[in-house]
Write a structure and sequence with these properties.
- There is one protein chain.
- With 319 residues, the chain is an alpha+beta fold.
- It folds into 2 domains: 4-165, Thiol Ester Dehydrase, Chain A (Roll), CATH 3.10.129; 176-318, Hotdog Thioesterase (Thiol Ester Dehydrase, Chain A), CATH 3.10.129.10.
- The protein is 18% helix and 33% strand.
- The protein is built from 4 helices and 13 strands.
- Strands 1, 2, 3, 4, 5, 6, 7, 8, 9, 10, 11, 12 and 13 form a 13-stranded antiparallel beta sheet that branches.
Length: 319
């Protein structure tokens, strides 16, 4: 039984998307959030729909929907929650500090090849620190598909006034050995090695084998319609998350922990400690996979730039 709409007093609609500005998207076609309604203090229910023919999230072998597609819907829904229900101004610079996703019911992501994936996210605030010009907030959410709990989402997000954000970025960039021109790696792995069909959606490439078997390089494609739906002053978090997922896939398959890269994402837990800049190579590092009794494989991963860790965490894959 679906009890989530009762929390809000009405059912959510999937007939149209919310305004693109509050979902932090430039293209209307990239907006996945369809509706929202408050359900108590510091909580809201938000609807989403994932298009079946999306150039990135539908680029996968036959099988279940990509859990990262729901993660993207949840990321957008967080911004809608902030702007529509928590009175944070549109236009504030936001940065991701921590992001977690766990698939509770893999069967909920089954693709019937007939209808887009629709669901609801029940978000609630679990922690906050707010001042006049900056703040941070922790939110947790349960994703329901067909009325049943399907995924769990948690994130910690920080924001600041534009002036404070720019001062922070100027300070950070001034301490880094930035290259004079933006760095763009062009070599990519074959799509089938990372569970893709379209080469454009491959975001990792090879490094010298002497560097290490679990080391790979980020491929930056500023024309990618999903990862670069709008401009950024740093490498966006969703691109790094996809790079971490592809790194984990490569590492698990090359070690024999997985027999195929057509694996389902089971969980993600990543903390971001710095911004990654465009003016320098961004590398991924993975440790040896750790198999679990249920057949899933956990891979500890990190993003490194200028010999410093930018993000680190764990990716869990299910064969």
């Amino acid at each position: 039984m679906n009890t989530a709409p009762a929390l809000a007093g009405r059912a959510l609609s999937h007939s149209r998307t919310v305004p693109r500005e509050i979902a932090h998207r430039r293209a209307v076609s990239e907006v996945f959030v369809t509706d929202s309604v408050a359900c108590g203090a510091d909580a809201a229910l938000l609807g989403f729909q994932i298009p079946r023919a999306h150039s990135l999230w539908a680029d996968r072998p036959a099988g279940p929907h990509d859990a990262f597609a729901v993660g993207e819907a949840a990321r957008q829904a967080a911004f809608v929650f902030f702007h529509e229900h928590l009175d944070l101004a549109v236009g504030l610079p936001f940065s991701m500090q921590r992001w977690e996703l766990a698939v509770l019911e893999p069967e909920s992501l089954r693709d019937d090849e007939r209808a887009p994936l629709e669901g609801e996210i029940h978000y609630r605030v679990t922690g906050r620190q707010v001042s006049a010009v900056r703040g941070s907030m922790t939110i947790e959410g349960t994703v329901r598909i067909d009325g049943r709990p399907a995924l769990r989402i948690a994130s910690e997000v920080a924001w600041a006034s534009r002036r404070d954000y720019q001062a922070l970025r100027d300070y950070q960039r001034g301490r880094k050995p930035l290259e004079t021109t933006p760095y763009e790696a062009t070599a990519r792995y074959a799509p089938e090695t990372v569970g893709r069909r379209d080469p454009r959606n491959v975001v990792v490439g090879p490094l010298d084998d002497a560097v290490g078997p679990g080391h790979h390089r980020l491929v930056v494609d500023l024309s990618h319609p999903a990862f670069f739906d709008h401009s950024y002053d740093h490498v966006p978090g969703p691109l790094m998350l996809e790079g971490l997922r592809q790194t984990a896939l490569l590492t698990a398959c090359r070690s024999g922990a997985l027999t195929t890269p057509s694996a389902q994402l089971q969980g993600v837990a990543v903390r971001f400690t710095d911004f990654a800049e465009f003016e320098g190579p961004v590398d991924f590092r993975a440790e040896a996979p750790v198999p679990a009794p249920d057949g899933s494989v956990a891979v500890t991963v990190a993003v490194v730039q200028f010999d410093a860790v930018v993000a680190q965490g764990e990716i869990t894959l299910r064969p």
